[in-house]
Specification:
Strand 5 and strand 6 form a beta hairpin. This protein is 26% helix and 25% strand. With 265 residues, the protein is of the alpha+beta class. It is globular.
């Protein structure tokens, strides 16, 4: 193939990926109120939450007071060397806009979770989570202030993991957009109290959630609000599930996942 052929193919695949929005729009959203919860907890400002979740369960994160970001990592519960990969999640789906209908992919090309519900639509899979160095530079030194990098290390340690197991996270409710010159901007109007995102787990996972503000938040002092976590059992998915069939890439990702699950059975 010539360079022009590759360029043409790139734009074809990019345009194809955009059809996922139209596909997912034909399917009803999950109800706002879930009555059959298996668990429901509150993550205080600055703290983290971690748990092992089973395939077919749904994790809902509710941003009750429009806090500036809720960061998340996932590991394969049976082989923690496989974990969420931000680069592949963006690259394979031809978009950094990870919202309803999109997938959270592992570094093995498999699906850790599907985004089956989303009332915000603005999440960041590029900039990463907060660190002590970033927060100290932005807000001033504070030895007791929490950040996502250290929260994830604490969460990982509870499952026998360490620094090498903690990679780049996805941060939900982080409305990072690019301007005409390609610079990151914060679209503050996108955050409204009570928004939620629903993640259906496509394999058994270990999940870690950090409730610390995103590094690009425009606030001039460190601030976070409590967020809510709910877990419930999703209904059995069909072969034509909109997350499974949106694009050629998502079909292949689920084929990889299904093959792995058959081997594990």
């Amino acid at each position: 193939m010539t360079p022009d052929d590759y360029r043409r193919r790139y734009f074809e695949l990019k345009a194809q990926a955009k059809t996922i929005q139209r596909s997912s729009a034909r399917h009803p959203e999950n109800p706002t109120v879930i009555t059959d919860t298996l668990a429901q907890e509150i993550i205080p400002p600055g703290w983290y939450w971690t748990r092992r979740l089973s395939r077919g369960q749904v994790l809902r994160l509710t941003n009750t007071q429009a806090t500036h970001g809720i960061s998340l990592l996932l590991w394969n519960a049976h082989d923690t060397s496989e974990r969420y990969n931000a680069g592949d999640t963006v690259k394979v789906q031809w978009t950094a806009r990870i919202n309803r209908g999109r997938l959270l992919l592992s570094d093995m090309g498999r699906v850790l979770a599907s985004v089956i519900g989303d009332t915000c639509g603005f999440h960041d899979a590029v900039a990463g989570g907060s660190t002590r160095a970033l927060d100290d530079a932005k807000y001033g030194p504070d030895p007791v202030r929490r950040n996502s990098a250290e929260n994830f290390l604490l969460a990982a340690g509870k499952h026998g993991l360490d620094t090498r197991d903690v990679g780049s996270c996805i941060t939900f409710f982080a409305p990072v957009v690019t301007d005409e010159e390609g610079f990151f901007q914060w679209h503050a109007e996108a955050l409204v109290p009570g928004q939620h995102v629903d993640l259906r787990l496509e394999m058994d996972v270990i999940v870690a959630v950090s409730n610390c503000p995103h590094p690009l938040s425009p606030q001039t002092h460190w601030s976070s609000e409590p967020v809510e976590v709910q877990i419930w059992q999703a209904p059995k998915t069909n072969a034509d599930d909109f997350c499974r069939t949106a694009t050629e890439e998502t079909v292949r990702a689920f084929e990889n996942t299904d093959a792995y699950l058959r081997e594990m059975a």
